[in-house]
Each structure stands twice: as structure tokens, then as C-alpha cells.
Amino acid sequence: MQKKWTTANIPQKNDGLAVITGSTEGIGFEDALALSSAGWSVIVMGRNSQKGADAIARIQQTNPKAKVSFEKIDLADLSSIKAFASKMISKGEAIDLLINNAGVMTPPNRLETADGFELQFGTNHLGHFALTAQLLPLLRKSSDARVVTVSSIANREGIISFDDLQSTSAYAPGKAYSQAKLANLMFALELQRQSEKHNWGITSMATHPGVSRTNLLITGSGRWSVAGMARTFLPFLFQPSAQGALPTLYAATSPEAIGGVYYGPDKMSETRGFPARATIPGQAEDLNVSSKLWEISQTLTQVNF
Predict the structure, then answer these.
(1) Do the domain assignments include residue 35?
(2) Is residue 1 part of a domain?
(3) How many domains does the chain fold into?
(4) Could you report the per-residue pLDDT of 75-101, keeping only the tens digit for each?
(5) By residue range, what is the domain housing residue 154?
(6) Which pLDDT tens digit goes with each residue over 202-257?
(7) Alpha helices of the chain — where are they, by DSSP H?
(8) Which residues contact 38 (CB under 8 A, 6 or more apart)?
(9) Is 169 part of any domain?
(10) Catalytic residue among 177, 250, 262, 263
(11) Is 177 a catalytic residue?
(12) 36: domain CATH number?
């Protein structure tokens, strides 16, 4: 792997469709900007149409020739995910890259998705699980499809609590977030195994951005939480979003990226730096838990791979 891989190393393309969740700002926006600059057609996705329009304007300011469009989706609502997937399937265009990036982080009180799931597990994991399943026919149409799912170093503290997946008996914001982010990593690794088993021809990888300067901390925990205040008053602790996006962009585009691998920054316990192989926490390698999580996720979301 190149020691200091940057966006300058992204291979230029004249085709290729990339779908990126949570891409109106933060790391997802940086992914969209870099990929559209390299010639990809990019679908920016989010809940807010105005933010979507602003994101497209910012991308086109940098690159007037960018092939970029916006699609509204709410990953906390299975019917919204189904509507988006149905629209894409009716168009029939192959999807070459899906980046499962959107996330909700540590709301202080337990909130629920439209379908009654705990908000972090329901959005970060189940929403992306359902989306990937429903886009599978279009991913399989591509000759070299990749699915990159963004996790977090918070997954190191995560445990998949099958007896209380939705944190109904006890809700601790950080614990629920760590579980959701561990689920993201386990999903990415299991998707690679399922793809190999069923010959789907899809390469699945997981990434994490280290500790990056995004609005996730402020919008999730609140500006005056410890995390929010650190983000506001100790900015030197955080690397810029563009730097945090590099592991995802590496997994998405590098000819050297390998399926079933986890990528993150290479310095200071993976909190910052350039893309490198990240350490998979032991609990993410439990195949029994992975397989059970896959089955339960299919049941909860009523989708089938």
C-alpha cells in the first residue's frame, strides 16, 4: 500500500455510478467531491433537499463538469429506503459503488426510527443493511461492484446484545453507538463472505475515519456535551473531514484494496493519518454472531439477500 495515499491517487474514470448515503456534508460530502472530480457519476443522498442542492452547488463550483445528482432518503424509515431502491431498479442502471456512510451518533435520549428501532442501530446498521439488500440486483449488474461500509473506532467497545438489540431495557448513548458501529463492521465482513459463497461478484470492505471534524458529534450529542465541546474548543484533536474520508476513498477506488479488509488511518492508534489496514476487534470476527446478526437483520428489515 502506498505510504501516503491521497485523492491524487484515485484512478480517473469516464464512467461508473457511485451511490453515497449521508453525503450532503462531512465525510460523505468529501467522498462525493473526490469521486465526481475523478469522473464518477455520483448520487448524493440525504434527508434534506436544501442541503442536497447546496452540496451539488459546492461540488459543481469545484468541478463544473461534475456528474452529480441528489436523491432524498431517510435511513431511519424502511419505506423511504424501499422507495429509493425501487426508483433505482426501475431505471435499471448498474451501481458500481455503494458507500454506506450516513450515521447518527449518541443522541442523549433513546429515540426510535419510523419502524420502532432504536435510532442508532436502526439507522446506522439496519438502514444500510436494507438498502444494500435492495440494491443488490443493480450491484450485481456491475462488472466490479464495491460496497464500502463506514464504521468507527467506537466499535472497539461494542457488543452485539441480542437480548436487547434496541436498547429498550437500558439506553446508554455511547453503548448503543458502539453496538451499531460494530454491527456496521460485522455486516461488511459478512457481506464479503456471502458474496464469495453465492458468487455475487461484489467486493465488500469496511472503513473508519479515525477522529474527524464533522458535525456528527455536535448534532448527535449536542454542542455542550463533552464530545461537542471538545469538537468546538479543541479542534487540534480532530483531523479534517477530507483527511477522514481517505480510508473510504481508498477502499472505494484503489486497485490494491482487498475485499473483507478493514481500512482506517495509520497514526496515533488509528485516530489520524493516511489509509492503512485497520485492526479488526476480536468481537467482530465471531462468525456465529455475524451469521446470527445477518439473519436477525433480514427478519427485522423484511429484506432478503
Answers:
(1) yes
(2) no
(3) 1
(4) 999 999 999 999 999 999 999 999 999
(5) 14-301
(6) 999 999 999 875 454 434 445 444 444 444 444 456 688 899 999 999 999 999 99
(7) 26-37, 49-62, 78-91, 119-120, 128-141, 173-198, 216-221, 226-233, 241-244, 246-253, 287-301
(8) 7, 10, 11, 12, 13, 253
(9) yes
(10) 177
(11) yes
(12) 3.40.50.720
